[in-house]
Amino acid sequence: MRPRKLVLRAAAPAAGRYALSRAWLDDNIYAIRLSGELGPEANARLGKTLLDVVAEGAREIVVELVGITASEPSVVGTLVQTNNVLQARGGGLRLVCSAPELLDLLKLTGLDRVLQVSTLRDEASVPPST
What we know:
By secondary structure, this protein is of the alpha/beta class. The protein has a single domain, classed as Transcription Regulator spoIIAA, CATH 3.30.750. It is built from 3 helices and 5 strands; from the N terminus they run ββαβαβαβ. The protein has a 5-stranded mixed beta sheet with strand order 1-2-3-4-5.
């Protein structure tokens, strides 16, 4: 059994930057917390992190986007691609996000019906941050 980390902490990002933290919640569920500006650099790191986590055997991934100041549309594509891989393995990706711009983009594109999206951490089984 993988070690269980109950608290995800990410240092507050500097202006124009992002912060990413990650932890196994149990043997099959992994949590990633991303905050700040989701530009090309953040998307590349998120994509690599998601690939690594899938390769490590995660079936469910919870991605929590917190304090998002800007978002590149390719971030959504990265999340959808990962969800497709996980669904093929009998799992899926859950997204926790309260950023109105990103929620609007998901609704406009219909991706809110493809991804499991919640605005509250408890709805997606993400541990509390401190």
